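Both lines are quoted verbatim for reference:

——
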Amino acid sequence: MPRKRPGRIRADLPRRRRSQDTTTVIKGLSSRALAEIGRLERTRNYLEPGDIGKAVCLWTDYVHRPKRDLWHDFDQLWHDDKWSDLHWYCCGNPLKARELLDITLKALPHRGARELRKAISTLDAFWTLPPLPSVTDERYRTS
């Protein structure tokens, strides 16, 4: 009875998931820090592979928006109007992404957290909100 060739046997086997399919890539981080992030994404039940990379991309896109858009978003948060910005509903809330990055910084080992903190701090330098309007109340007027 003829036997199957080894290549045919390997072709019939179920395909294994490759680790490269789910790796997170963040510009400016070493392979060691990316491996720590990948390990964190695999071990935490509130994370899926690629969540931290998506959060960094979402935060990057948000901080590079024009200042008038940032003020509009801040005004929506100030009035707690959840449903006014449907773009956040479908594409993700950048402030929630930043919160996830803070949680990630606390969960990572020191070396990986230091590298990620450096990358995030450069993004945070772009994020400047205009000053809040001054509160003028009739009760505090001295004239």
About this structure: Residues 110-126 form the longest helix (17 residues). The two ends are 107 Å apart (CA to CA). The helical segments are 6-12, 31-43, 51-63, 67-78, 86-91, 94-107, 110-126. Residues 82 and 94 are 13 Å apart (CA to CA).
